[in-house]
Amino acid sequence: MKTLVVDNGASTIKAGYSSEEEPSFIPNSVFKSKFERKRVFVADELKDCVDKTSLYYLLPFEKGYLVNWDIEHQVWDRLFGPVLNVDFNESRLVLTDTGQNVPAFRDRSAEMVFEDYEFQSLYKTSATSLVATAKSLNGESSSCFVIDSGYSFTHIIPYINGKVYRPGIVRIDVGGKALTNQLKEWISYRQLQVLDETYVMNQCKEDACFVSLNFNEDMKISRLSGVANTHMREYVLPDFMTRHRGELQLPGSADVGDAQKILLSSERFAIPEILFRPSDVDLNQMGIVEALLYSLSFIPEEHAPDVVEKIICIGGSSLFPNYSDRIAKDLRPLLDEDVDFAVHLPSNPITFAWQCAKQCVENQLLEDKFVTKAEYLEHGENICFKRFNNFLS
């Protein structure tokens, strides 16, 4: 029996068999293009779309929760069919779901997995739980904090001995989507109308932005003119004929002909700053470090040292340069001098949960957690809820 691991992210699905070294990536969305009105692009079919300007997104996730099951079904049809060619009779599934941390909406995943696709067994968990479980493989304590900063949200999840400590869960409603939308608004107000260019501006955010380690000093630099402004960059926009992704360059460093470009300065670090200070854009939310401290205040005193000792960052937003350094820098003066902590950023925080699942499967740490198709047909969804529950309290 082969084990298929699907990290079902709101932006990107990372999927592959546990025997493989790396997962496949596909967008977790259905796309429509104003230039190809007769076709709908499902997931990785987007690569066939020549002009990606003004793409319209149909998303299965809203605010981090899977609510549009029809769209997800289309994406999974593409994933399990042409992308992976899954043999359902010989496969079991490990599936990640945000709802395993924060139960909210009706969950149809078990119904789809067993009745529509007919997998032989299922284990559903969260990406953060896989990270905490894999920590025990090296003889380490599986008590830790996992900061999951993804597409729709940022979760601060404390784990005590591998179990989610529910009172300490903190959700910040800021993720990659909010940052991209804010960048679109600022650029549209200051320079060029890009409100419909989600795809392009998301790439611009990824290519140009970084986390500031001294925000006030960086703001002073961004106000300078000429070469004194070391943060100033040009972002050459793609035309999808000769250039299929934008290019970041020093102002005037290359002749780009008639290509459109935007000028970036304070936007480069002010956009990721929203993760740390959401109030800067009138969001009544805690920033990452404040939320981490708030979560820590709920941890039982005897477990607090083990939990704070390992702070693990995952999710696409953690790829901003200086992200983990900023968390460590801001956190150090807020903790007692004798408190040891370490902020760990994996080499690839996007695939880290998938790699942890692979390790757990290879080391048989999940064997007693799977629900078989026969068990599901006999007991229904209740057995899934009982067996997948990973809450300490």
CATH architecture of the largest domain: 2-Layer Sandwich
Order the strands across the largest sheet as they lie in space. 3-2-1-9-10-20
Radius of gyration: 22 Å
- What proportion strand? 15-25%
Report the major sheet: 6 strands, mixed
Number of domains: 3
Poorly predicted segments: none
The assigned structural class equals: alpha+beta
How much helix, percentage-wise, in residues? 25-40%
Total number of helices: 13
* Oligomeric grouping of the chains: single chain
CATH topology of the largest domain: Nucleotidyltransferase, domain 5
Overall pLDDT score? 91
Give the CA-CA distance, first to last residue. 34 Å
The CATH class assignment of the largest domain is Alpha Beta
CATH superfamily of the largest domain: ATPase, nucleotide binding domain
Strand segment count? 20
Subcellular location: Cytoplasm
Keywords: Cytoplasm
Organism: Acrobeloides nanus
Pfam families: Actin (PF00022)
Name the features.
cytoplasm; Nucleotidyltransferase, domain 5; ATPase_NBD; six-stranded mixed sheet; Actin, Chain A, domain 4; Actin-related protein 6; 393 residues; alpha+beta; 3 domains; Actin
Report on this structure.
Belongs to the actin family. ARP6 subfamily. It holds the Pfam family Actin. Its main location: cytoplasm. This is Actin-related protein 6. This protein is an alpha+beta fold. It folds into three domains: 2-126 and 351-388, ATPase, nucleotide binding domain (Nucleotidyltransferase, domain 5, 2-Layer Sandwich), CATH 3.30.420; 133-174 and 284-344, ATPase, nucleotide binding domain (Nucleotidyltransferase, domain 5, 2-Layer Sandwich); 176-273, Actin, Chain A, domain 4, CATH 3.90.640. It contains 13 helices and 20 strands. Helix 4 packs across helix 5 and helix 4 runs antiparallel to helix 7 (267-276). The mean pLDDT is 91.
